[in-house]
Specification:
The protein has helices at about 15-25, 40-60, 75-85, 95-105, 220-225, 235-250, 250-270, 300-310, 335-354; strands at about 5, 65-70, 90-95, 110-115, 135-140, 145, 150, 160-165, 180-185, 195-200, 275-280, 290-295, 315, 325-330. By secondary structure, the chain is an alpha/beta fold. α2 packs across α6 (about 235-250).
């Protein structure tokens, strides 16, 4: 058995994979593969509607919001967001690599005020911040996959609030009504790569004075029900099946319990085991991406631990190339059994090396 801790693309529910495989053979008893059907067919309309409905149900999305399925991943949203919402000034919280990329993209469209940055701490903490009341919106990245920090509450904001939730969406209940927009790439908890989700409150659109090309205008995508151009059919189908799986096990309230149990299991071992140490402030630890390193006494032994982990069937725990160490991504579809296996590997490594 393989234990998949990859940070993205990441582990998917077997139920969703199996359903997609069958659809690749024959979609909706049409005699055609989902890869070759028309996206204008009635069967596909039903699949899109079901996916949209599942999003609204699982996150209790209020009236007045639309759910979009778009190309380009979260990185394209770094540009589309300010294109549509930034008139004069936007406020951004800098908590890591992806937040920094979003900040740089927004600068093309207006003034960007960085309300706080965790750079001086190598992004090991979420810095304290204040949101300016004269900003068009406030943006934060809820979970930082590279450094392993997470904002697990829905902040109060005096202005429209936007969050990149690429790597922790659907991992806990959220109060969508606090946000003007939530977006992210699908390839962690919501499906496979090649697709971005956008949850947006319609009344924030149409307020900027600039002209927006059709493809980058959220209003155009809303009007065309995410089919202004040919949608990424297979990733959307995979997303639908992933959401169906999540609903079948009890939804986001249930998955939050499971995710906390997985994270507690691993963090408890990191804190107990003298060979390892965590790299982020305890109060800001991510439930999704657990980052850790070897203690200084065992420096240079990373390769030995990686070799041992392979014997356990563990894959994807090497830390991001920019920070090194180890990273275990505990996304929704990862079972507790895999975390327990990693903990067992860490205990064996302690016996070998300590």
């Amino acid at each position: 058995m393989k234990h998949n801790f990859n940070a993205g693309p990441s582990i998917l529910p077997k139920q969703a994979i199996d359903a997609t495989v069958e659809a690749l053979k024959d979609f909706n008893n049409s005699g055609l593969s989902i890869a070759e059907i028309s996206h204008r067919s009635a069967g596909w309309d039903e699949a899109m509607d079901e996916c949209r409905t599942l999003w609204k149900e699982l996150l209790s999305i209020p009236d007045g919001y639309e759910v979009l399925f778009l190309h380009g991943g979260a990185s394209q949203q770094f540009l589309m967001l300010p294109y549509n919402l930034l008139q004069t000034k936007a406020a951004y919280l800098d908590t890591g690599v992806w937040a920094t990329k979003a900040i740089e993209a927004a600068k093309y469209f207006g003034e960007v005020q960085v309300v706080a940055s965790g750079k001086d701490s190598n992004y090991s903490v979420i810095p304290k911040y204040e949101i300016p009341a004269d900003a068009d919106y406030f943006h934060f990245t809820s979970n930082n996959t590279i450094f392993g920090t997470e904002i697990r509450t829905d902040p109060d904001s005096p202005v429209n609030m936007v969050s990149d939730m690429s790597s922790d969406i659907l991992s806990r209940p959220i109060d969508v009504s606090k946000y003007a927009m939530i977006y992210g790439g699908a390839q962690k908890n919501a499906g496979t790569a090649g697709l971005a989700f956008v949850i947006i409150r319609q009344d924030v659109l149409g307020k900027v004075s600039r002209s927006i090309p059709a493809f980058f205008d959220y209003r155009v995508h809303i009007k065309n029900k995410s089919m202004y151009n040919t949608p990424p059919v297979i990733p959307i189908f995979m997303m639908k099946e992933t959401l169906k799986w999540l609903k079948s096990i009890g939804g986001v309230a249930e998955i939050e319990k499971r995710n906390r149990a997985k994270a507690d299991c691993l963090y408890n071992e990191i804190d107990r085991n003298p060979v390892f140490r965590g790299t982020t402030a305890v109060e800001n630890r991510s439930i999704m991406n657990v980052c850790f390193v070897l203690n200084e006494k065992y420096a240079g032994k990373d390769g030995d631990f990686m070799e041992l982990s392979k014997k356990y069937g563990i894959t994807g725990i090497k830390g991001h190339r920019s920070v090194g160490g180890f990273r275990a991504s505990l996304y929704n579809a990862l079972p507790l059994e895999s975390v327990e296996t990693l903990v067992g590997c860490m205990k064996e490594f302690e016996k070998i090396i300590a």
